[in-house]
């Protein structure tokens, strides 16, 4: 459904509500909820210009656009938005101007995502242009805005011209002396943690969120996946020649934020009027029996595809993908299920490709080619000279699925091991700032693939939930589910939206759960790993499996049936391991 909403209409609504409420903040809050209501009525099938990929932008002047992406960084300094009292989005004169506190967000395409964005077919020349190394460029002083685009979509030739021009730019220091250029990949120049899956996704957007009551109530955080709705800045960008006329003093270089000399076609700027987190609520209501009907079909799909006939492993893959971090208690994440799969032979690239096809948010593979790179950045680190948070491979959107090649991880550096322990077992991302380390709560799913016995594994990868894969010979049975990867992905998207609660009306259930786990531990002595680290303890993981089981059926709390089902699976898993 096409969404019709122009900048003039929104500006008029802001002006009218400001006069009615005598408070521009209250007016902006009203518009925020008004736009969300209109978006909700238009879903599914919402049609509006998307900021990503940049080639999808046609004539966007005055049209409401959507920027779906991951918040890579929040500008640390206070900013102000110059608004006109008579025309909110128009040029504000000194006597008719309001300064509104605002936050700048650096938003990038969701790493490892292949389905959020409508990407055109790329030619080989476009792909080569996208992946070529480009020189690092100097800092510039000034707030640049996005260039006016033509009425037609950005053609491949235009994209190649921008990239070619970008590669030919020369770095100048403030005294004008030319310096040797260090080669950087384009994705690194755009501060993307991983190369995008398409050359057309080499892009980013600086989103301006004006402060008002709705912003204060619903905090936007780094790594969140968000749909931003707003209008793109249409002022013509300053050319490199004009920018060179501005002297670069020490303060100017430090104070610029993501104002590097990036081609305007790759870096957009948006004034946001509304937003919503992706997968926080279902896009559309589902039938009461949706989960009960779809779950067995998804289970059969997993068994007949990636698991190659292994029904037990299919159950654990389903539970693994149904789990998510619910909360952190005493610095311990609750709800996620890191899963280890062991086999004589296993192909991490094939598994990662499959997981990408069914994961709602994204999928990233940490293998030897990535972890052995000389340019590897592990976690985000503040670059105080450029005043930006340089990303790392472990900065991923909340909800992302991560596939680990255990052999590659075991050969990696101690720094990688320490950071991986933090993100996998503590579910926090270390942000390295000068003189301090900040740990940001995250929500990632980890699948570790190994050809070693668990007793031979490094301690980091001795996960409490480890399944020995027993694939059958090439499948004789056909997949009779009639499900596609998109159907499975849609199921896990709905599961992710299921609320998870800890307390049910039946208080005796917690006691029954504890008793059953103790009895099970006594009957299966090899089941309990006795890990003193709570997150990787067998009892904690059993509880997480039960919560995931309940969510996979669309239930908010654990039932007795969930407890019995998980203990049945755990008994089979332990028997296979022996």
From TrEMBL:
Predominant place of localization: nucleus
Keyword Translocase on entry: no
Signal peptide range in chain numbering: none
A GO CC annotation given for this chain: nucleus
InterPro entries according to UniProt: MCM_complex-bd
One Pfam family named in its UniProt record: MCM_bind
Localisation: Nucleus
Any one Gene Ontology molecular-function term assigned to this protein's record: chromatin binding
Top-level taxon of the source organism: Eukaryota
Keyword terms: Nucleus
GO terms classed as biological process: DNA-templated DNA replication
Protein name in the entry: Mini-chromosome maintenance complex-binding protein
């Amino acid at each position: 459904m096409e969404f019709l909403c122009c900048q003039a209409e929104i500006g008029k609504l802001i002006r009218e509500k400001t006069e009615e409420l005598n408070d521009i903040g209250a007016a902006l809050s009203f518009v925020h909820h008004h736009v969300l209501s209109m978006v909700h009525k238009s879903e599914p099938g919402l049609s509006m210009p998307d900021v990503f990929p940049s080639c999808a932008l046609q004539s966007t002047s005055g049209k409401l656009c959507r920027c779906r992406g991951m918040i890579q960084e929040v500008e640390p300094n206070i900013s102000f938005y110059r608004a006109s009292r008579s025309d909110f989005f128009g040029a504000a004169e000194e006597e008719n101007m309001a300064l509104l506190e605002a936050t700048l967000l650096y938003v990038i395409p969701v790493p490892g995502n292949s389905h959020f964005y409508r990407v055109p077919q790329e030619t080989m020349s476009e792909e080569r242009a996208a992946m070529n190394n480009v020189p690092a460029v100097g800092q510039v002083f000034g707030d640049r805005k996005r260039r006016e685009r033509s009425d037609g979509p950005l053609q491949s030739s235009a994209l190649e011209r921008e990239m070619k021009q970008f590669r030919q730019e020369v770095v100048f220091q403030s005294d004008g002396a030319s310096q040797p250029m260090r080669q950087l990949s384009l994705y690194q120049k755009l501060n993307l943690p991983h190369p995008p899956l398409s050359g057309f996704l080499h892009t980013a957007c600086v989103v301006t969120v004006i402060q008002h009551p709705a912003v204060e109530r619903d905090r936007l955080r780094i790594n969140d996946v968000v749909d931003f709705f707003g209008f793109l800045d249409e002022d013509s960008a300053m050319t490199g020649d004009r920018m060179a006329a501005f002297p670069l003093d020490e303060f100017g270089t430090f104070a610029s934020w993501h104002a590097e000399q990036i081609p305007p076609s790759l870096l957009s700027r948006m004034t946001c009027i509304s937003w919503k987190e992706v997968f926080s609520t279902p896009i559309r209501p589902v039938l009461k029996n949706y989960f009960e009907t779809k779950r067995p079909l998804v289970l059969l799909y997993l068994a007949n595809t990636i698991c190659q006939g292994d029904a037990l492993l299919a159950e654990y893959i389903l539970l693994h993908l149904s789990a998510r971090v619910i909360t952190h208690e005493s610095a311990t994440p609750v709800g996620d299920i890191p899963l280890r799969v062991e086999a004589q032979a296993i192909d991490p690239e094939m598994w990662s490709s499959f997981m990408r096809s069914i994961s709602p948010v994204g999928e990233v593979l940490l293998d030897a080619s990535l972890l052995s790179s000389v340019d590897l950045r592990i976690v985000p680190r503040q670059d105080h000279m450029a005043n930006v948070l340089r990303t790392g491979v472990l900065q991923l959107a909340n909800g992302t699925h991560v596939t680990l090649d255990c052999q590659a991880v075991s050969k990696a550096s101690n720094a990688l091991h320490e950071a991986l322990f933090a993100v996998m077992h503590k579910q926090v991302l270390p942000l390295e700032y000068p003189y301090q380390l900040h740990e940001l709560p995250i929500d990632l799913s980890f699948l570790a693939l190994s050809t070693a016995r668990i007793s031979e594994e490094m301690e980091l990868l001795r996960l409490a939930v480890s399944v020995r894969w027993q694939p059958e010979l090439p499948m004789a049975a056909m997949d009779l589910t009639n499900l596609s990867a998109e159907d499975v992905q849609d199921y896990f998207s709905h599961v992710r939206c299921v609320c998870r609660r800890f307390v049910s009306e039946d208080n005796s259930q917690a006691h029954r759960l504890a008793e059953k786990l103790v009895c099970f531990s006594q009957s299966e002595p090899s089941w309990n790993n006795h890990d003193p680290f709570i997150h990787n303890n067998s009892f904690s993981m059993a509880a997480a499996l039960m919560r995931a089981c309940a969510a996979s059926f669309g239930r908010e709390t654990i039932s007795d049936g969930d407890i019995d089902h998980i203990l049945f699976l755990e008994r089979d898993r332990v028997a296979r391991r022996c």
